Amino acid sequence: MSQKVICAGCDEAYWNESRLRCTACGIPLPAARTVRRQQRARSTPYRCADCMAAPPPFDATFALADYRPPLDTLARGLKFSARLALAGEFARRLARIANDTLEPAEWPDVITAVPLSRKRLVTRGYNQAWEMAKPLAKLLDVRSDARLVARVAHTAPQSQLDLEARRHNLQHAFALAKSVEGLHVGVVDDVMTSGATLEAVARLLKDAGARRVTNFVALRTPKN
């Protein structure tokens, strides 16, 4: 990132690593497979075993890097310490991936963010995912909409729950405010762990007629 946030050595070692990721959920694939196929990764729809066995409701996920030191401290700084400049840097890097991977015609029609509940938004004062979504949409020259998806239930923090509990925790947590019929929707979040939150949002969008759902996340945990 910038010199004020992370040194050039860490930037090269962590942000720019050549990792083949599942095109659906963004999880890193085995290293041997990465070495063999990294030259064709951008044009080939590689999927992990979980996504092949049970395809998620979203269609694609772009992730900048794994959620691990030292980058995890950046995500926590954005989320809990209002280091909002990080949101713009994450957005610039995600836009670069979109530019390198997709043709402009394949970019989302609208970009939104995983919403916070009203209670959590009031407590924190900002939604870190939306702080990323705004500049990402501007860089891609597509429409952004903070209110497209609303969080209608205040739920327990996902970090405290296992995968099944996370999914149950999010049942009926979200609602749509506008039509998404036939649209390609980009959904932004800071960290993707189990994928349960993004699954819940994508399922809501797909059930309402969205044509495609693409996730844009800063960091992805290496394992579910």
Automatic annotation (TrEMBL):
Top-level division of the source organism's lineage: Bacteria
InterPro entries assigned: ComF/GntX_DNA_util-trans, PRTase-like, PRTase_dom
Transmembrane segments: none
All residue ranges annotated as the Phosphoribosyltransferase domain in the record: 131-217
Family to which this protein belongs: Belongs to the ComF/GntX family.
PANTHER family in UniProt: DNA UTILIZATION PROTEIN YHGH
The name this protein goes by in its record: ComF family protein
Organism expressing this protein natively: Paraburkholderia kururiensis
